[in-house]
Structures are given as structure tokens and as C-alpha cells.
Predict the structure of AB hydrolase-1 domain-containing protein.
Amino acid sequence: MVARTDEVTRADGSTYRRAGTGPALVLVHGYLGGAAQWQNEFERLSDSFDVIAPDLPGYGNAAAAGCIDRIEGFAHHLAGLVDELGIERFCLLGHSMGGMIAQEFAAQFSDRVEKLILYGTGPLGLMPDRFEPLDVSRRRLAEDGVACTIRRIGATWFRDGDAAPGFNLVASLGAQAKEPAAQAGLDAMSHWDGRAALARISMPSLVLWGDGDQSYRWPQVEALWRGLPDSKLAVIPGTAHAAHLEKSTLFQAVVRDFL
């Protein structure tokens, strides 16, 4: 039986979802994402884990909670959440920009992370070889608005583009964000470089990647995998940036096996 998922609004207006019992597993979404993107993980992992997924400020159901323009700021926001929940140690999974936040958190608070999963992400926020430079995304966001931007960018996250079954979820979730938060997220990524901190991220880590990812190409993924002191690599074939929605059963099997 699937555990009931509760959504909680915090005093600062940010929100999180929580379900299940067992060791704590925190899932951090990426740019223009939200807690709702982890619906399959709540269904299939909450039998073994206390699954917690925040809506980062400015995104998803926390769209009205202001915005953060630095990865370090997101990491401290995450620290405030787990402190509030009384969680000392936990497993941490971050996707895309959320993977940058997870790296930053793990570097600053290494004693609190039991195991780390860095999914569809890299150690450099500028994302060399991304499908388009961040400056282009910034300009087009100002011209087209958030709803058009997430449909355009989100289509690159799937091997089947906007025809993929998970595309509508991504598009509707991303459209909840306000333009200032969307711009702040691009600023946060463009100012972040986590390469020097990789050596401090000493807990067992899994680098998880879809082989058709157009946001984080292999050189970024390889640099992350080889730069971490204790890391494993898992590549999910036939997927892009949203492997957890494209091949969810395989994705969860890999995650569960590592944890």
C-alpha cells in the first residue's frame, strides 16, 4: 500500500511533501521543477524510506515564497528545512540544478549526508555544451515568459520531446514559477562552480545520468564521477534529462540498489 503523501507549508511560504517511514531520503528538484515531479518516487520508495521533497522557493507550490539567486542560498534553505524536521543524517538526491544544491550542501555539511545521488547534473553551473548557453535562456525567458520557456526547454529533457508521457507534468509544474524566480535560478547556476569542493564530498556517491541528456553532456558527468572520492556511475540508456519520468522503474531500481 502506498503511504499517504502530506504537503506542508512552512512559515516562510515554502512547501514540502513527505511520505513513508524509514531512513530519510530528501529529493531536490531542479530548475523550473517542483516536488510534484517525484510522484513515482513517492509511490515506489516510501515503503522503505521517509521520502521528503521540498518545493524550492519560487518554484512549484512555493512560487509565492520569494526567490533565491545563489546555489549556496538554496543549500542553506535546505539545511533550514532538515533542521526544522529534526533530521540529523539522511540520504540526499539532487536533480539538475538540484544536483548543484546537493553538491553544495554535501560540501558544507558532509557529516549530515549518509549517501549522495547526483542525477543529471555536473560540477559547473555554466554547463558547457548545454543545448543553449544560459545567457540565451535568460534572454528568451524575458522575451517569451515562463510558460513558453518551460515548454521549449522541457522538451529537451525527453528523448521524445513534447510527445513524451511526462512532458505535460514538467510543463505544468514549471509554469507555476514566476519570472523573477526563473531568472534568479539562471543567475544561481551561472555563478556557481563546485569543482574545487568535490574532494570534500567524501560520502558514498552515485552519479546517475541519462545517455541522451542535452543539458549535462558526458564531459560534465565524467568530471563529477572522477572528481568525487567515493563514487559510482550509473547510465540509464534511452533517456535524456528526465530519466526518472522516462524510465521510472529502472531509475528507482538503480536508486534503491545504491541506497
About this structure: The domain at 6-258 is CATH 3.40.50.1820 (Rossmann fold).
